[in-house]
Amino acid sequence: xxxxxxxxxxxxxxxxxxxxxxxxxxxxxxxxxxxxxxxxxxxxxxxxxxxxxxxxxxxxxxxxxxxxxxxxxxxxxxxxxxxxxxxxxxxxxxxxxxxxxxxxxxxxxxxxxxxxxxxxxxx
Length: 123
Fold this sequence. Notes:
Helix content is 47%, strand content 0%. By secondary structure, the chain is mainly alpha-helical.
């Protein structure tokens, strides 16, 4: 819109909720590189904190062989303690869900404490 002169840079910055200076930086980057210049530079890259697939596969195999009757939290603690394999509970839980070895429990409906209705104070 700004490049076709349908809107001023000031109006665009207000609409986007960013400062005028930030809008100038973004517009300059757009003019230099087009649409691709507005995409985040880390898009498509693997995270530095991603757990190695071999570790995840080994943990799922251990769960399948030894710890099939454990929940993900106890399984993760036991795998760390006995097998010295380090991964987070959430990583193990996701892997077990994907492998079909664990089913996520549904959250209970929003009920009041101990099943009693909420205390309503009237004025």
